[in-house]
Records
---
Amino acid sequence: MNTKAMYKLSYGLFVLTAKVGDKINGCITNTAIQVASEPNQISFAVNKANYTHEMLMKSDVCNISVISEEAGFELFKRFGFQSGREVDKFAGFTDFVLAENGVPYITKGTNAYFSIVIKQRVDLGSHTLFIGELAAMEVLSSVPSATYSFYQANIKPKPAAEAKPSDVPEGMHKWRCKICGYEYVGVSLPEDFICPVCKHPAEDFEQVY
Ligand code: FE
């Protein structure tokens, strides 16, 4: 069984945003798809370790912003490479608007957003599959949606461009998660290392320095 077959599946990229009390947060996901038309429904799966998952077990509303080919790497760093448990991902960020449901959607580097009312939660082990109906949706731009392949080829910085990273001390090396871009700096990458962001294992890391 060649698990690399999984890489042949194509995905879009999205910012999933939620609000519980005064706390707003969001994460990058590649799992949103339309799953029915009558009524119109979207599903998306979220890793249980994510803070956004915790929020969506407490709240039935969320937004999904569709990332476009104009998105910069900054957007992925802000929403993908840090945890909402530790930082306020919206601090100093102005490229969003609050939708009618009170949840933000992203206005730059995106081409549409959906406001979703969660109707079902399916426990899938590592992830929960959320299925919801559409409360609102708008087109924000005519720029094509970014696929995961487009991100890998055009948005994610190339290792060659960072031959001598300034953040790697003498005698240490750098590995980057091929899935989400998270970077690990150390003498060696532990075999049992799990990406703190996307939860993929050490074998999904590549040494970039
Ligand atoms: Fe990762």
---
Amino acid sequence: MSRQSSPDVVVVGAGFAGLYQLHRLRGLGLSARVFEAGSGIGGTWYWNRYPGARCDVESLEYSYSFSPELEQEWEWTERYPAQPEILRYAEHVAERFDLRRDIELDTRVTSAVWDDDTSRWSVTTSHGETVTARYCVFATGCLSRPKDLEIPGLDAFAGPVYSTARWPHAGVDFTGRRVAVIGTGSSGIQSVPVIAEQAAELTVYQRTANYSLPARNRPLDARTQDERKANYAAYREAARHSPAGLVGDLPTESALDASPEQRRAAFDDAWAQGSLGAMRRTYADIGLDIRANDMAADFIRGRIRDTVTDPATAEALAPSDHPFGTKRPCLDTGYYETFNSPHVHLVDLKKTPIERITERGVVTADGEVEVDDVVLATGFDAMTGALLSIDIRGRDGQALADAWADGPVSYLGLGVAGFPNLFTITGPGSPSVLSNMLVSIEQHVDWISECLARLERDRVATIEPTPQAQKDWVAHVAEVGEATLYPLAKSWYLGANVPGKPRVFMPYIGGVGAYRQICDEVAADDYRGFTLQ
Ligand code: FAD
Ligand code: N01
């Protein structure tokens, strides 16, 4: 098939963001080429095929809202569907909206260079092709670049090393094998119970104990689905204007004003619901006041101690070094219970850090544990990793890597000063990873699309944030972040999981609804804070 060498738009990435962006560009009559490094579409749900992978936002909310027909025709089978089902959904969307013909798989974008003379981006791919485009939209994902592991000796390990974020498509049979899982974030916590079902011995290496709530996943019954479908428009609208892109009543009461019995009942109820949102919404100050947060954290630690029979293991699993919610908490199915099985062992890396990996296994101060397989559930170079692994150069050859040397700066998480006609979807400085991502993706894509429509209609050649607007926005993002408990944790939100990465609280915590309003006002005020030429 012959492809345009100078489409109107290049989109990088074919996850949920890239797919919807392509659909909207078609609607605007703009030509586009979408480059995707993977061999399939779906982004997160293409790559993360580890056992137990599933979403922790309910399917009826973690899905596109842009097409009422799509909403009505797609049937979800579970409250929190597993990776294969979410990938099937992405593939269905691609087929239904005939998106595949503009998507080039196995094609990594290696550089994007702005040319001031032609007002176009030159985008080069891993196949050596260079195309030019008026606009470049980076839909490269916040959690798409696995972080490099800093543990020495990994190359020496004689057996297979699996990464949860690059899981073999054929699956892995751990039957009868001795397995090490390193990492206890969401990926580790989801995969450990499933791997434990097969493995002969499973050793879990935990650096930071995380808060996890039972998912209480279940098949979706027809009544629940039908009820939602009958009222979908209202639910979606509520989600768009909510703090986190999720529907639910907002608390006004302080945990400090409740009696111990009331708090216990509220936390019990949230625990029984199987939803991160429910626990966060117990009281208004859970994320703001350390005393309120401690009450929720104590409750969760109590439930862990109730579940795990060995007291030392329970103590190690009970998070103690960061407030609840300041690292992303998890939803699990049987995670804590798994440690009651005699063949499952926990190694607390706070006490005995990993020294190295050898040909045979993992060495800590306690000696070597021999294993057949190593599973890395060690996370991502989040929010900036995928963008900075592309050589992006704006005006006067300025590299994005230099502009972001002290941490990412942007205006609204949508554009960067000095980088005209460049847009990031759920970029740093936007609510993105603090929200139901589908809601945030749709909001960004819609905003970008309306913006492009305006530029096309009025023959505007370039749009770019002013340095002042960017500076003010960055200061605002930092200010609202600092007013919360988030900075108290060494989290990937702050870049703390990657050695040497600047410590900047990257997402915007002002809330999805408030943020949408700001973006809408900026657009209504003829793109206040942007220079249009
Ligand atoms: P991605 O899905 O990450 O897609 C980006 C794509 O860009 C990738 O396919 C990548 O290969 C491609 N790409 C990157 N760089 C290049 C390049 N240089 N050239 C070409 N292609 C490139 N969010 C929620 O809201 N709820 C959840 O329950 C939830 N569960 C998650 C579970 C897991 C295991 C993970 C890892 C994340 C989860 N997330 C969840 C976050 C999830 O990333 C988003 O919900 C969403 O899927 C992101 O879509 P995206 O299109 O923005 O990015
Ligand atoms: O990654 P993580 P993840 N030595 O960074 C540890 C989404 N997601 O892939 O906490 C030893 O959370 C690290 O330790 P520490 C979700 O947004 C969602 O699990 O840095 N350990 C941590 O325990 C999530 O937040 C779902 O001290 C090392 C773990 O590895 C995000 O993706 C499912 C180490 C990494 O945890 C990332 O989750 C999966 C080292 N050198 C993912 N380096 C859902 O359920 C790192 N670790 C929706």
---
Amino acid sequence: MSDYTPKPEHRFTFGLWTVGNPGRDPFGEPTRAVVDPNDSVRKLAELGAYGVNFHDDDLVPFGSDAATRENIVSQFKKTLDESGMKVPMATTNLFTQPIFKDGAFTSSDPKVRSYAVQKTMRAMDLGAEFGAETYVFWGGREGSEVDGAKNPLEPLKWFREALNFLNAYQMEQGYGFKIALEPKPNEPRGDIYLGTTGHALGFIATLDHPENVGVNPEFAHDTMAGLNFVHNIAQAIDAGKLFHIDLNGQKPGRFDQDLRFGAEDLKGNFYLVKLLEDNNYAGPKHFDAHALRTSDADDVWNFARGCMRTYLVLAEKARQFNADSEIQAIVSELNGGGASAFAGGYSKDSAEAIKNQSFDVGALTSRSLPYEKLDQLVIDLLLGVR
Ligand code: GCO
Ligand code: MN
Ligand code: MN
């Protein structure tokens, strides 16, 4: 039996807002006490995490004066030093305060947009103070319910202006952030702009400096939209844009559940972990999830342990998949055909040759594809009977 003990080298991270989630939902008050971020850091270090991430307001409450900010920052730095924990990612809360009721960077009000940029520059300063390498943009309020209220082309333009400005700011400051856009299809807005990983990848190409902008896809978000997260992550890796990842659990067709990683869709999560491991994804593995509202303070740590444990178990299953001779024989047989006649690129000669090639359509059609067999082997592997 393997050792599934999380260690800092696994680069598991949690948001302060995840383990600190007090269990509030749109219908009910919190079920748990507010947690001091310093306590969260100490406990996560004890459990083997690598670091914590935060929104500006998770660490320094909104509206704090300069002296309060300084006290909080120096205490938090001390706690991080003592526990050996890192802050690999920082982000801005552009959704809680009522001023952002109609969006931040995509508000129709230019003053709100400027305020959002001011808040983000200050949050970037805070993240840089803690050595954050990645800066996430989740546009929770960047969306609409009433599309008659603004020309749908404008929010894209405003979002682009803000990102270009803020990226230029952080470059000039020498912060060296990798910027990661986090898409979500809806919630809290009826519809959120740039709703999926694919939308974000397309948008990035329109920015002034696309080279340091990538994505932070979240399992729950793409699953809410009914999409295949593994395919989306593959596309992000293919584009060289997988800068960060939010791991959690989610049933399709529901509100954003942010469940413990692996709580739903074990097979999908197995292929996800396999994809990340096979491609040596080196970024943080961030659990953007929270314990159930029914959990008490102790059960929150069972939740955190569970996220990391399931990842490590699935990583071991991925290694087993890669080493299983029966599985590998099927996979090789399925993929053993070599390159296509056009894989070497276009030439007049290759076009002519393919035009004249003769194909045994009958033989190609009747080729055996034992996907049922393969899938059941994977099921047996995951259920631990193989
Ligand atoms: C959500 C989002 C957020 C973001 C976080 C970082 O649906 O609530 O996933 O948790 O990840 O705000 O920007
Ligand atoms: Mn989420
Ligand atoms: Mn997220």
